[in-house]
Amino acid sequence: MLDRELKHLWNKSSNTAQISIDTKRLEEEFEAKVHNIQRKIRNRDIREISASVVGIGLFGYLLYEIPFPFTKLACALAIMWFVLIIIKFNKSRIKATPTKASLPISEQLDYHEQSMKKQADLLDSATYGNTPHLLDHF
């Protein structure tokens, strides 16, 4: 009897499932997630730029204090690297423009997908993330 009831229910159900989407709630959740991701990216940028400024100060002091030419060269190269990092993160922040809420959801999704790909490319292009950690070997 249970088998017949299940077959009857199965045959009785429609072929297409009725799915209702609350677009207002979907848009609110989407905006909240995008805002959260943008906040994390902004915090990462601030952290990287702050570390670069500290590095510039530290290596600038070492450049001034230590008399050895190779050390001065290494400090100058480190300072140039920190300046490059600051420039890269500032350019990525300038390129990131917020989307208009009046655009359709599909266009907003496409825009944010492209934005996330650019952020991933920015992180992949940073060679300091791909170098082995020196402290791990000790």
Question: What report would you give on this structure?
Answer:
This protein has helices at 2-12, 23-65, 69-95, 105-125. By secondary structure, it is an all-alpha fold. The protein is elongated and about 90 Å long. It has one domain (24-123). The relative contact order is 0.08. Helix 2 runs antiparallel to helix 3 (69-95).
Counted up, domains total 1
The oligomeric status of these chains comes to single chain
Largest sheet: none
Compute the CA-based radius of gyration: 26 Å
Shape: elongated
Total beta strand runs: 0
Our count of helices gives 4
**Low-confidence spans:** none
Q: Summarize the helix and strand pattern as letters.
A: HHHH
Between the first and last Cα atoms, what is the distance in angstroms?
71 Å
Report the sheet-strand fraction.
under 5%
Q: Bin the helical content.
A: over 70%
* Nearest-integer average pLDDT: 78
Can I get a quick summary?
With 138 residues, the protein is mostly helical.
How do the strands and helices of this protein lay out in sequence?
Blueprint: H1 2-12, H2 23-65, H3 69-95, H4 105-125
Key phrases:
elongated; 138 residues; mainly alpha; single chain
